[in-house]
Design goal:
Strand order of the largest sheet of chain A: 2-3-4-5-15
Strand content of chain B: under 5%
Oligomer: heterodimer
Structural class of chain A: alpha/beta
CATH superfamily of the largest domain in chain A: ANL, N-terminal domain
CATH architecture of the largest domain in chain A: 3-Layer(aba) Sandwich
Low-confidence stretches of chain B: none
Helix content of chain A: 25-40%
Number of strands of chain B: 0
Mean pLDDT of chain B: 90
Strand content of chain A: 25-35%
Mean pLDDT of chain A: 93
Radius of gyration of chain B: 11 Å
Shape of chain A: globular
Number of strands of chain A: 22
Chain lengths: ~400, ~80
């Protein structure tokens, strides 16, 4: 599979160097001289890494995208094999799972189709310029890269982030047209009083990686509207390579709270309250061991998302919660997502208690929250524990690290 | 406690560093604990500690301890007391 459209450009914001066909060819030659099987690739945001990624895809070698900040020895130990299924192209780690994370197995078709679907709904053309705002091993970061490269657009590799001057300098210097963020970054942008007028080339913001509070959806949609720009709310999972839905900006106000309609070629149904997606971008299945890498497709294009939701008569999906995110308080099941929707906290399940973490809450606010949440649940306050924290722990993909919160109990 | 000591304390607390960690040479890029989240927390801590409201431009310019000293100086925090 070749994702590198002839017009595509990848620029390192610091060195100004751009990716060339020669660099990809050199990476191909190097890979061809290495043992077969899985290519373990720590995804630093650099040209040589992007070249190696594209080279692996061209050679049909399955490439496992890894967090460069982590020790990845256990992945090498668990998944070193030359027995890989011929359709296998990209392996992604699943976040948030315990102990030995599973891998998501994606075919070249799924990866390419998803990149095309995304480019179509976001209107990505060769004129677009995106900047890296997310790690490339994370499915959202990968999809920004893929959907731009395949359309001959430009990707600016920037290793700083939105809290740093260099990032915003690069945005203006390279004429960046779109920025992709997860909800925690929108919270930061709000604190930074993000003003799109200061970045005149930026015409669209995209959002995925978890539910963005509707007041922030409205806020950022309005900020972008003042400069004739757009906010795209999106929905996906690594298991779908990753995008499944986009909310057209023109319908955003009217469908507030929706994550949009299925991508072209995809479809949502609700089965026993669970959101089920069918489409050409669904994974082949998971891999827990090296032997699983030889397996073919076990999903048949069907993904049970584990999300609870409903679809309206125009096909707009509304996510209402997560099947597994439940706590019991005095034996009564509580949806942790509902708690988070109604109170400014991160909620986890304690031992027959609801435990919530409130950022920067004073003693009085802690007491007040405890009373209000207990009242809202219709339960005694002794079933609710409120803890004040300076900040919520985050995973590399910017989502709340619930495991870290649970382990702090 | 002098303002300089208060600033050092705020850095150690926000970046989750030991009580005796040297911080005067810290740079955003070089310290793995100084990420975007820690930066938010640091700015909030400085605003509380010195009763100031730090502008957006100053928030993203605050890329080192030295930079923080000069930015807070603009807001009237005196480090030569």
């Amino acid at each position: 599979m070749n994702l590198f459209h002839p017009g595509a450009r990848v620029i390192d914001a610091v060195t100004g160097e751009t990716l060339t066909e020669d660099m990809i060819a050199a990476a191909e030659a190097q890979l061809a001289g290495e043992p077969g099987g899985v290519v373990f690739l720590p995804m630093q945001t650099t040209l040589p890494v992007v070249a190696r990624y594209l080279a692996a895809l061209r050679l049909g070698r399955p490439v496992l995208l890894l967090d460069p900040e982590h020790d990845n020895a256990s992945f090498v130990e668990r998944f070193t094999t030359t027995e890989v299924h011929p359709d296998l192209a990209v392996l992604l780690t699943t976040s948030g799972s315990t102990g030995n994370p599973k891998l998501v197995r994606l075919t070249a078709d799924a990866v390419r189709t998803n990149a095309e679907q995304i480019a179509e709904v976001l209107g990505i053309t060769g004129d677009e310029v995106a900047v890296t705002t997310l790690p490339l091993f994370y499915s959202f970061g990968m999809s920004v890269l893929n959907s731009h490269l395949i359309k001959g657009a430009t990707i600016v590799l920037e290793r700083t982030g939105i809290m740093q001057r260099d990032f915003w300098t690069a945005v203006n210097e390279h004429g960046v047209t779109s920025l992709a963020f997860v909800p925690s970054q929108y919270e930061m942008l709000r604190r930074l009083r993000f003003d799109p007028a200061k970045y005149p080339t930026v015409r669209s913001l995209t959002q995925a990686g978890g539910r963005l509070r509707t007041d922030l959806v409205t806020d950022f949609s309005e900020r972008m509207a003042t400069v004739g720009g757009k906010l795209y709310v999106m929905y996906g999972q690594t298991e779908a390579g990753p995008r499944m839905a986009t909310l057209p900006p023109a319908r955003l106000a009217e469908k507030l709270g929706s994550v949009g309609q299925a991508l072209p070629g995809g479809e949502f149904t609700i089965e026993d309250d669970e959101v089920v997606y069918r489409g050409p971008n669904v994974m082949m299945g998971y891999a827990e061991t090296a032997a699983d890498l030889a397996l073919g497709d076990v999903q048949g294009g069907v993904l049970r998302t584990g999300d609870l939701g409903r679809v309206d008569d125009e096909g707009f999906l509304f996510i209402t919660g997560r099947i597994k995110r439940m706590a019991k308080v005095f034996g009564v099941r509580i949806n942790l997502d509902d708690v988070e929707k109604n109170f400014p906290v991160a909620a986890v399940a304690g031992d027959d208690k609801l435990v919530v973490f409130a950022v920067g809450a004073s003693d009085d606010e802690v007491r007040d929250l405890r009373t209000k949440i207990a009242e809202w649940l219709g339960t005694h306050f002794s079933g609710v524990i409120v803890r004040s924290v300076e900040a919520l722990p985050l995973m590399p993909n910017g989502k709340t690290d619930y495991r870290a919160l649970e382990s702090s109990l | 406690m002098s303002n300089l000591q208060r600033l050092r304390e705020a850095f150690r607390t926000s970046l989750d560093l030991p009580a005796d960690a040297p911080v005067d040479e810290l740079q955003y890029q070089d310290n793995e604990k100084w990420d975007s989240l820690a930066h938010m927390s640091l700015v909030a801590a400085l605003e509380d500690e010195f009763s100031v409201m730090i502008d957006t431009d100053d928030v993203i310019n605050m890329s080192s301890f030295t930079e923080a000293v000069s930015i807070l100086g603009k807001y009237g925090v005196d480090f030569n007391e």
